[in-house]
Write a structure and sequence with these properties.
Layout: H1 3-19, H2 24-29, H3 47-60
Length: about 70
């Protein structure tokens, strides 16, 4: 990927997943072999873990909005 494509992907992730809670997008942008090196205890260290953490965060802070 080119640098501009990477930037667009990160912006899309922040806008749609972090700010809007669209966790379905994680399946599209998360590589199947992705591993979270510092996953919280008892959570999967993969794309499913990202979904869980995103849902927990969005439940705690439903009005949060992130700007890149």
């Amino acid at each position: 990927m080119l640098a501009e494509e990477n930037k667009a992907l990160v912006r899309r992730c922040v806008d749609e997943v972090r700010s809007r809670g669209n966790i379905d997008l994680i399946d599209e942008i998360c590589f199947p072999y992705f591993v979270i090196n510092r996953a919280p205890p008892r959570l999967p260290a993969n794309c499913e873990g990202i979904k869980i953490v995103t849902n927990i965060f969005r439940a705690a802070f439903p009005d949060s909005y992130f700007t890149v």
